[in-house]
Specification:
Number of strands: 5
Radius of gyration: 17 Å
Structural class: alpha/beta
Strand content: 15-25%
CATH architecture of one domain: 3-Layer(aba) Sandwich
Largest sheet: 5 strands, parallel
């Protein structure tokens, strides 16, 4: 009789999601077929200025995640959480079997491999690479922030981010209390 190794496989999908893009959601949708549960872990990158606060990012993500789950309810459960500190510590604290990383192109793969090897050595957590759809191969949150910071048309962002995110970016661009000029300066120095 075969031995059963049934176990709940939870994965952490970490990122800043600042802002969440259609590429992020594509990776999440693909990853749901690989695990029993996925935690979308919203963190803050100390090397980058926030466009949206962590709370705003979670508020944008939760309905989008709910929509993905409703479309295919038989795949992995998904929740959204916030964390600070090292991703591997957060993942280990949840008992995660793996960390999901989206790969857009070969440049991502090179840097992500180095991080994956380190995570495996330091925390004994495997990294699972999920290749995004080709239409998102050159899309990044940094690119979206740049377009907004330099006053680009928020309408031109529709192919790259969900409508709710376009609306939030438009509101941020129009808010005189939260000028994006500082962000534009920081984006230029990257």
């Amino acid at each position: 009789m075969p031995v059963s190794h049934a176990r709940h496989h939870l994965a952490v999908y970490p990122g800043s999601f600042d802002p969440v893009t259609l590429g992020h959601l594509d990776v999440l949708a693909r990853a749901r077929g690989l695990f029993d549960e996925v935690v979308v872990a919203v963190g803050r990158n100390p090397d980058k200025a926030d466009f949206f606060s962590v709370e705003e990012r979670v508020a944008l993500l939760e309905p989008l995640v709910g929509e993905i789950v409703r479309r295919e309810p038989d795949l992995a459960r998904v929740s959204v959480a916030t964390y600070s500190g090292l991703t591997v510590d957060f993942a280990r604290g949840l008992g995660a079997a793996g960390i999901i990383r989206g790969i857009r192109h070969v440049t991502d793969l090179a840097s992500e491999c180095q991080l994956a090897i380190t995570n495996r050595q330091v925390a004994a957590i495997e990294t699972v690479f999920v290749v995004t759809g080709e239409e998102y191969a050159f899309l990044s949150s940094s690119l979206i922030r740049q377009i907004a910071a330099f006053g680009g048309s928020s309408e031109k962002l529709r192919p790259f981010v969900p409508s709710s995110v376009v609306d939030a970016i438009r509101a941020r661009m129009a808010d005189p209390a939260r000028p994006l000029k500082r962000l534009a300066i920081e984006v230029q120095s990257d």
